[in-house]
Amino acid sequence: MTTLLGSVDPLFAHGATGVVILIVLIKVLVGFGVLMGAVTLMIWFERKAISDMQSRIGPQRWGPFGIFQTVADGIKLILKEDLIPAEADRFVFKLAPYLVVVPALITFAIVPVGGTLHIAGHPVMLQMANPPMGILLMLVMSGISVYGVMLAGWSSGSKYPLLSSVRASAQMISYEAALGLTIVTIVLATGSLSTHNIVDAQSGGIWHWNLIRLGVIPFVVFLISITAELNRPPFDVVEAESELVGGFHTEYSSIRFGLFYLAEFMNTITMSAIIVTLFLGGPAGWIPNVAHLRWVFPIVWFLLKTVAFAFSYVWFRAALPRFRYDQLMDLGWKRLIPLSLGWMLIVAGFLVSPRWGLGMIWVTFIAWLTLTRAFRLGHSRERGVEAVLPVVGERPLPGDVLRQMTDEEDANG
Amino acid sequence: MTAIAYALPSIVIFVTAALLILVGAVGVITVKNPVHSALSLIMTLFGVAVAFVAQSADFLAAVQIIVYAGAIVVLFLFVIMFLGVDRRDADRVEPLVGQRAFAAGGVVITVAGLITLMARSHWVTGAMSVSTKGAALAGGSGNVKQLGTAIFTTYLFAFEVTAALLIIAVVGAVMLARREQADDTEASKEVEA
What we know:
- Chain A is mainly alpha-helical and 413 residues long.
- Chain A contains 15 helices and two strands.
- Chain A has helices at 2-6, 18-53, 69-79, 90-107, 136-155, 159-190, 195-201, 210-213, 217-229, 241-244, 254-279, 296-319, 325-352, 354-381, 399-412; strands at residues 116-119, 122-125.
- In chain A, helix 3 packs across helix 11 (254-279), helix 4 (90-107) packs parallel to helix 11 and helix 13 packs antiparallel against helix 14.
- Chain A starts with a helix and ends with a helix.
- With 193 residues, chain B is mostly helical.
- Chain B is 73% helix and 0% strand.
- In chain B, helix 1 packs antiparallel against helix 2 and helix 2 (34-54) packs antiparallel against helix 3 (58-83).
- Mean pLDDT of chain B is 77; it is low at 125-129.
- The interface between A and B is large, with 43 and 38 residues.
């Protein structure tokens, strides 16, 4: 057990002594506290930035620039009445919010926040855990959080949440495929699953960042898929107010609703951090030669990069109109999955030798031609609405006759 | 067989995993509501993943959750939700006459097979690992590499054949789904004509 842990985290190299356990506890508590604080700030930041972009003022009453607005909202939510609909499946209804919050919390544990410190003679990695399964833990947790969304909608015993949860889970498992394929590309280039090693492999300057080293395509695919995975705008068909009332958490109130809200913003932060870890070298960056403070700069770099991505999510929300559900599925299955698969083949080829890489480019090109042809053929078979929805019953009059009649009415009226 | 002394943490982890697996498995067949039994199935799969982690088969644990819990049971739930869970009276009627006898036979064969395996060989993954010809696996992150090497060298044929089988299944499913739709459009064309 000791050797097993020691091979993963140097902290456990000499066994789990009292000091080591204390360090781990402090890491977990600090991590939890920082994440919670960051969520509070993120909610305030999103509201403030969105209102700036929409020429509104936004929260301004409590604290400087309304920075304590989230705290006030949280207290309000906790004090509200907790309603459970009569038609609800009570056990699942209560379980679902935790299935969303817990994965959101755990995913943050694998993010390396800074370099390695030395506390009381022990090397301490600034990340809560460095499990051998590494980045796969993120996929595992997003797999679990699908259940939270799905069961929340189903257990509400109401039709809009059910529709929303079916949409959400289909969307989330579809985009997980593209997500997984881009992660495979990164793991291939790094040769390790562990997030610590992924960050280490990118530490040699900006040209070693996966963003540039792997070509920009995996980054773009990952950014789009993760936005869809988070159900954030422009992919928030899950909570499309105009179609589905409030989405899967329509029936939730009080702190249970608060948990969904919390999880959403926690996921936004965590996924920004994951993008930074996978593509932008995590804490990598320029370190000035200041005595005793060299360990601070990686953390600052990490925070700056993460905030940049958190802001880009807010920007997406303000700037982009919502996708239609079929457009969303088309983008996921017909564009992103083939693209990430082809790019993975090319990267794998170039890792073997340039000749294999060029061969893989040819293979991908031929596959792309075939796919384009197949999509065009499939598209030409669909003829309007009838191809998707079969006609129920018979129409009284053909469409063009009806149109002619209304045109005549308009002309007469 | 030699008796091995286990440390307390290993025992705690094993008991937790075993409880998760057993309670979940019993739940799947005893709970009335189909959604609840799907949830119990997830609990079982989770327990199996914990057992995998305890034997330092981290990759298997991750794949267990990503593939089984993250995709397959989601599809089960999809089907349950689309068909509606209120139709519970369907299980009062037995669709296959005499299936209980077959089920009992299946249980006897499975249990007998398991007991034979347990009695005759090291059936725990650590003792007879496929990638190292019986030697113990590397701990930590090394064993993902070992697993990959084993799959893509020694067992390459089996791996590729599995991939081909899955592709055939997917293409077959798409063909079945598309043909039905084509019939629909033709039927609607006839109605229009």
